[in-house]
């Protein structure tokens, strides 16, 4: 093997890593392409039964119909992301007020930033990819500078693309070598049009914020030492391939025309994807407008570096970059799969689970169509008694025409007899069992499919619906965990990248946002980001209203008791047992909001004031009661003293009378 001495050895090593991973996943990519064709209604890549050709098959794309029906049940809207202080944060913690203010601001900013990043579009693409291609991939980036950002496919609209095109056209005009006069004229016209557009401020000069990109499964390469795709977080490197035309490569990376001619070019196939077997082409051919360059972006966790290069290139397109502002996880790639099997590297797609049932369904319909062909109306005649002229007259007779046939004196109905056909047995070609298997495999019930395959009792329908809900809920849980990881990573990026002006534009001028990074990290560690369970699926207004109506009376009663206790007792609001009961009730109901938001500081102060006033009134009443009791006691004491005085007087009188009675009689005086 001849070694290119002019090629950067590090580029060659990285390309070998990517090629090694591609060779490992080559068979999986072929199977994924078959599944995509199946979902599209094509049998390309799938061996058909020998007795039927593609034109003979009666095809009804049940696979696509099932996938489309499952999509809104799995993901239909952006989730409700709630941010609140962690449960372990103490009420006496001095950081709690700031944490609450930060949580409210972060909740608004995060929901708005993810909504602007195209979360719904990205997640719908992820679910479709999981259904058809086994796994789904999404990449989160923060858009700021066109020339230095990682490769972003769905950039926010601004004038940076125009400025880049302006710079590329100017460099083309300055370097006229290798360009025809027509090409230079076109570049000059494009330059004038770009300047006119920027002067009129058609686009925002510069946009920044979170951006989400969907990545095709075959454009992701993972460290081949990983034994399961679900363990991609443990990989030492992950690479993304981006297909770019030559003009885009020139604009974003500043590659010269001479260097572009050395890159490997690929031509789009009929499906729109490039043909990997394409050969390098020159810049001046007519097909160059359709040729694409494979640009690789590899994130190496070991060195903490991001590399960019193009296939066929001798050096990096951009100097290796060490990102300073990343999340707790290094990779900006997020992958998910639903149907993992223990011990297998790749999960199964929904299409692969339904392919054989689709074949059985089409085969039954095809055989039924073949049977119908055998039931064409025809007659049988006795060749010994009927001439060819009579048969011809009988066959081409017009409406109302009277045909004269020589039946040899025999009744005509004995000469021409309707042919007997093989009997049609509908149960032989009944596809109800196949549809039932599809429902069981996919988890899609009759009600969601939009038709009823067979009659069901209320109990059977309820059991089937419960089974559907459990499987759909399982997928919703996995998606919500997946979005939670994206939300946490996005929050870590926002804390480092997003300026205060953009924060205030999202959350208003009263938004609370820590100024220094230490405060941000400390406060963020005290917050909890939670997605409301089931908020990504198809909304069910009736069920939500019934659920809310069921818990509303209990919430009102608990609130009343909590307020009464708060008015009566001088305790912190979080120590109120009714508040704790309400928090637990909302947690059980999967309501992702802080109960303490229902008790703002002003309300707590008002309740404390009312309680203090009541306690003062109670104290005054108690004092009055004590005074009344004291007065009663004094009155009783006075009465007792009066009674004791009277008793003493009576006793003294009685004693005097007794003394008088016991005294000897006085002697009579002597007469003079």
Name some characteristics of this structure:
672 residues, alpha+beta, three-stranded antiparallel sheet, 20 helices, 13 strands, 50% helix
How are the SSEs placed, and which strands pair?
Elements: H1 9-24, H2 26-40, H3 62-74, E1 81-85, H4 96-116, H5 119-133, E2 135-143, H6 160-174, H7 181-199, E3 209-215, E4 220-222, E5 237-244, H8 246-253, H9 257-260, E6 265-267, E7 291-300, E8 305-310, E9 318-321, E10 333-337, H10 350-373, E11 379-381, H11 388-395, H12 412-415, E12 416-418, H13 432-442, H14 446-449, H15 458-497, H16 500-507, H17 517-524, E13 527-531, H18 541-568, H19 577-588, H20 601-662
Antiparallel strand pairs: 1-13, 2-3, 2-10, 4-5, 5-7, 6-7, 7-8, 8-9, 11-12
Helix pairs in contact: 3-10, 6-7, 6-8, 10-13, 18-19, 18-20
Structure explained in plain terms:
By secondary structure, the protein is α+β, with helices and mostly antiparallel strands. The chain has helices at 9-24, 26-40, 62-74, 96-116, 119-133, 160-174, 181-199, 246-253, 257-260, 350-373, 388-395, 412-415, 432-442, 446-449, 458-497, 500-507, 517-524, 541-568, 577-588, 601-662, and strands at residues 81-85, 135-143, 209-215, 220-222, 237-244, 265-267, 291-300, 305-310, 318-321, 333-337, 379-381, 416-418, 527-531. It has a domain at 376-420. The protein contains 20 helices and 13 strands. The strands form 4 sheets. Strands 4, 5, 6, 7, 8 and 9 form a 6-stranded antiparallel beta sheet that branches. The longest helix is centred in the last third of the chain and has 62 residues, at 601-662. The termini are far apart. Residues 155-160, 201-206, 277-289 and 449-453 have low confidence and may be disordered.
């Amino acid at each position: 093997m001849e070694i290119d001495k002019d090629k950067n050895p590090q580029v060659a090593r990285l390309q070998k890593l990517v090629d090694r991973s591609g060779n490992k996943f080559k068979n999986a990519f072929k199977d994924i392409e078959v599944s995509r064709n199946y979902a599209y209604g094509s049998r390309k890549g799938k061996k058909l039964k020998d007795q039927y050709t593609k034109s003979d098959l009666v095809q009804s794309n049940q696979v696509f119909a099932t996938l489309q029906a499952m999509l809104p049940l799995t993901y239909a809207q952006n989730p409700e992301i709630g941010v609140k202080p962690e449960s372990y944060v103490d009420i006496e913690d001095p950081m709690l007020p700031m944490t609450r203010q930060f949580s409210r601001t972060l909740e608004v900013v995060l929901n708005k930033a993810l909504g602007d990043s195209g979360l719904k579009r990205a997640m719908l693409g992820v679910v479709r990819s999981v259904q058809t291609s086994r796994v789904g991939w999404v990449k989160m980036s923060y858009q700021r500078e066109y020339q230095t950002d990682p490769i972003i496919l769905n950039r926010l609209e601004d004038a940076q693309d125009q400025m880049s095109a302006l710079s590329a056209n100017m460099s083309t005009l300055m370097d006229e070598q290798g360009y025809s006069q027509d090409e230079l004229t076109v570049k000059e016209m494009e330059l004038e049009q770009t300047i006119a557009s920027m002067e009129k401020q058609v686009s925002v000069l510069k946009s920044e914020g979170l951006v989400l990109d969907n990545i095709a499964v075959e454009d992701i390469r993972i460290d081949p030492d990983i034994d399961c795709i679900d363990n991609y977080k443990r990989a030492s490197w992950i690479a993304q391939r981006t297909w770019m035309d030559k003009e885009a490569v020139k604009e974003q990376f500043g590659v010269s025309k001479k260097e572009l001619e050395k890159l490997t070019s690929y031509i789009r196939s009929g499906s729109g994807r490039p043909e990997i077997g394409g050969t390098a082409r020159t810049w001046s051919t007519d097909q160059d407008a359709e040729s694409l360059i494979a640009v690789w972006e590899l994130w190496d966790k070991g060195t903490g570096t991001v590399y960019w290069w193009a296939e066929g290139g001798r050096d990096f397109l951009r100097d290796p970059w060490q990102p300073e502002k990343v999340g707790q996880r290094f990779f900006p790639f997020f992958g998910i799969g639903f149907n993992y099997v223990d011990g297998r590297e790749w999960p199964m797609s929904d299409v692969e689970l339904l392919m054989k049932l689709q074949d059985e369904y089409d085969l039954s319909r095809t055989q039924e169509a073949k049977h119908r062909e055998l039931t064409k109306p025809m007659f049988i005649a006795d060749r010994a008694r009927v001439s060819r002229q009579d048969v011809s007259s009988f066959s081409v007779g017009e409406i109302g025409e009277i045909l004269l046939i020589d039946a040899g004196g025999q009744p005509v109905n004995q000469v021409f007899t309707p042919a007997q056909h093989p009997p049609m047995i509908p149960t032989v070609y009944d596809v109800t069992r196949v549809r039932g298997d599809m429902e069981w495999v996919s988890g899609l019930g009759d009600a969601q499919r939009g038709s009823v395959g067979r009659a069901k009792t209320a109990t059977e329908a309820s059991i089937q619906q419960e089974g559907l809900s459990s499987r759909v809920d399982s997928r919703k849980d996995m998606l919500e965990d997946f979005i939670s990881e994206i939300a946490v990573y996005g929050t870590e990026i926002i804390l480092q990248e997003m300026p205060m002006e953009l924060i205030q534009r999202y959350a208003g001028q009263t938004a609370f946002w820590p100024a220094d990074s230490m405060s941000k990290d400390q406060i963020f560690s005290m917050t909890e980001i939670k997605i409301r369970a089931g908020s990504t699926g198809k909304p069910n207004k009736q069920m939500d209203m019934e659920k809310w109506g069921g818990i509303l009376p209990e919430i009102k009663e608990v609130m009343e008791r909590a307020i009464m206790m708060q008015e009566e007792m001088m305790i912190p609001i979080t120590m109120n047992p009714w508040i704790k009961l309400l928090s637990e009730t909302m947690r059980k109901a999967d309501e992702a909001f802080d109960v303490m938001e229902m008790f703002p500081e002003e309300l707590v102060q008002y309740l404390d004031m009312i309680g203090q006033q009541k306690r003062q009134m109670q104290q005054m009443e108690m004092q009055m009661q004590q005074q009344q009791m004291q007065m009663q006691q004094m009155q009783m004491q006075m009465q007792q003293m009066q009674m004791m005085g009277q008793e003493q007087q009576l006793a003294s009188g009685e004693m005097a009378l007794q003394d008088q009675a016991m005294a000897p009689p006085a002697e009579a005086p002597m007469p003079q």
